[in-house]
Amino acid sequence: MNLANYNSQELRELRKEIDRELKKRRKQEVKEAQKELKHVAERYGFSLNELLSASPGVKPGAIKGAVRYRHPEDADKTWSGRGRKPSWVKEWEASGRSLEDLRVD
Q1: How far is C-alpha 100 from the geometric centre of its chain's CA atoms?
Q2: Which residues of 2-18 are buried (b: 16+ CB within 10 A; e: fewer)?
């Protein structure tokens, strides 16, 4: 696939499609992993909840939030929408552009 043949709008749409597909696949992979973990736990006589609640080092709320905003020209710049706004988001808004333009869906 030669991305040089696409204009900027087409590339942004392609990125959205890729993000949606990746999200869909991740959900499926999580379901498969949970099913596999459940079978392993049952093989040892435990429920999955028993094993997960006994896990040391994982604190509630320690999981990073999902990406809700992404810079259109630099995909490495993301923000979950939680906490302080990163400088690139502040600059985006200061230039008169809307935060909704950055939303990932």
Answers
A1: 17
A2: eeeeeeeeeeeeeeeee
CATH number belonging to the domain at 64-105, selected among 3.90.470.10, 3.40.109.10, 3.40.50.1580, 4.10.430.10: 4.10.430.10
- Give the Cα separation of 60 and 63 in Å (integer): 8
Position 105 pLDDT exceeds 90: no
Task: Domain ranges for the chain, please list them.
Answer: 1-60, 64-105
Two tokens, residue 90: 């502040």
Tens digits of residue pLDDT in 48-96: 887 777 656 656 555 567 889 999 888 889 999 888 999 999 999 999 9
Q: Considering the entire predicted model, what is its pTM?
A: 0.45
